[in-house]
C-alpha cells in the first residue's frame, strides 16, 4: 500500500453527525459508529496522514423531537437546522485551521451545514455523488423528508430555517454524479437551474474516467473541491446498508476510480460520507466500503 502524496492541509479532522431526522428509516444515526468501527482513522494514518477524531456533534434523538407548526412539509426542519448550524461552525473552524474535514453521517441533511461553510472558501466546487438529486423543496416534496431538499436549501430555494450561512451555492458550482432516481417536479426544477447532472446512463455510455475528466473541466476554475458522497450512489450489491437503495448504481471499481481521480486532481479538502445504515447492512460491508473509498480519495494507490 503506497503512502499518500503531499497534501495541501495540515491534518484531517473527523466529525460524526449521528442524525436521522431528515428521513424516515431508523438506523442511519449509527452510521458514524459503523464507519469508525470499520477503521477509518487507522486507515488514513497508515497513509501517513495526521488524523484527529473530534467526536460527534450533538443531535437530538427522533424520540425527543416533535413536529412543530409549519413543519408538515419539511419534517423536523428546526431541529435539523440547529444541527446544520453546529456542523457549519465545525467546518468553518476546520477551514480556518488549514485542515481537511471528513463528516460522517447520518442522513444527507447534514450537508446543509458542511457545504454552506465550505462556500466561505470563496472559490469552491461541489462534487455531489448520489442516486438522488435532493432538489425538492417543501412545496414539491412527496415525503416531507429534508434529506431530499439539501441542494435546493443550499441554493436558497427553501424557506428558513433551512437556509444556513452567508453564501448560497450557484448551479455552476456543483456537478451531480450517479443520479438515477428523481421525482417529477424535482427533475424539472433541476433542468431549469442548468446544474450539470451526470446520470448512471451517462456513465454507462462513456465510462467513469470520461465523466471525471468532464467534471474537473466544469470545475476547472475553482481552488477547492468538496465531495458529498451518499452511499446510496453505489449499487446495493456492494453497499446494501443504506436507507434508500436504488438498483443500477456505481460499481466498486467505478466508485474507486472516481475517488482516485479526484485525489489526483489535488483540490479536495472536505468530504461528506452519508446514509450508512448498519441496521440494513450485511456485516458492516457498507461501512467498510465507506472507509475504502475515503482512503482512495485521500491518496491510497495500488503502486
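^ C-alpha cells above, recovered residues below v
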Amino acid at each position: 500500500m503506497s503512502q499518500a502524496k503531499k497534501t495541501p492541509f495540515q491534518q484531517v479532522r473527523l466529525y460524526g453527525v449521528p442524525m436521522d431526522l431528515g428521513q424516515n428509516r431508523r438506523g442511519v444515526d449509527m452510521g458514524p459508529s459503523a464507519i469508525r468501527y470499520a477503521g477509518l482513522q487507522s486507515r488514513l494514518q497508515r497513509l501517513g496522514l495526521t488524523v484527529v477524531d473530534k467526536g460527534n456533534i450533538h443531535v437530538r434523538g427522533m424520540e425527543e423531537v416533535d413536529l412543530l407548526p409549519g413543519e408538515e412539509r419539511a419534517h423536523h426542519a428546526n431541529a435539523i437546522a440547529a444541527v446544520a448550524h453546529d456542523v457549519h461552525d465545525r467546518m468553518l473552524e476546520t477551514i480556518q485551521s488549514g485542515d481537511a474535514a471528513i463528516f460522517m453521517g447520518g442522513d444527507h441533511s447534514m450537508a446543509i451545514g458542511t457545504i454552506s461553510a465550505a462556500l466561505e472558501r470563496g472559490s469552491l466546487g461541489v462534487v455531489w455523488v448520489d442516486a438522488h438529486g435532493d432538489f425538492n423543496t417543501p412545496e414539491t416534496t412527496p415525503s416531507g423528508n429534508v434529506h431530499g431538499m439539501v441542494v435546493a436549501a443550499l441554493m436558497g430555494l427553501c424557506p428558513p430555517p433551512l437556509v444556513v450561512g452567508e453564501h448560497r451555492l450557484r448551479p455552476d458550482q456543483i456537478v451531480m454524479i450517479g443520479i438515477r432516481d428523481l421525482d417529477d417536479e424535482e427533475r424539472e426544477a433541476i433542468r431549469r437551474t442548468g446544474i450539470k447532472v451526470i446520470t448512471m446512463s451517462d456513465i454507462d455510455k462513456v465510462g467513469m474516467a470520461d465523466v471525471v475528466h468532464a467534471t474537473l473541466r466544469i470545475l476547472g476554475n475553482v481552488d477547492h473541491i468538496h465531495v458529498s458522497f451518499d452511499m446510496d450512489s453505489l449499487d446495493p450489491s456492494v453497499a446494501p446498508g443504506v436507507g434508500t437503495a436504488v438498483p443500477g448504481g456505481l460499481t466498486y471499481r467505478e466508485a474507486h476510480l472516481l475517488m482516485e481521480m479526484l485525489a489526483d486532481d489535488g483540490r479536495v479538502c472536505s468530504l461528506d460520507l452519508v446514509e450508512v445504515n448498519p441496521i440494513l447492512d450485511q456485516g458492516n460491508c457498507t461501512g467498510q466500503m465507506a472507509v475504502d473509498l475515503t482512503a482512495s480519495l485521500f491518496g491510497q494507490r495500488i503502486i
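The CA atoms of residues 75 and 269 lie 31 Å apart.
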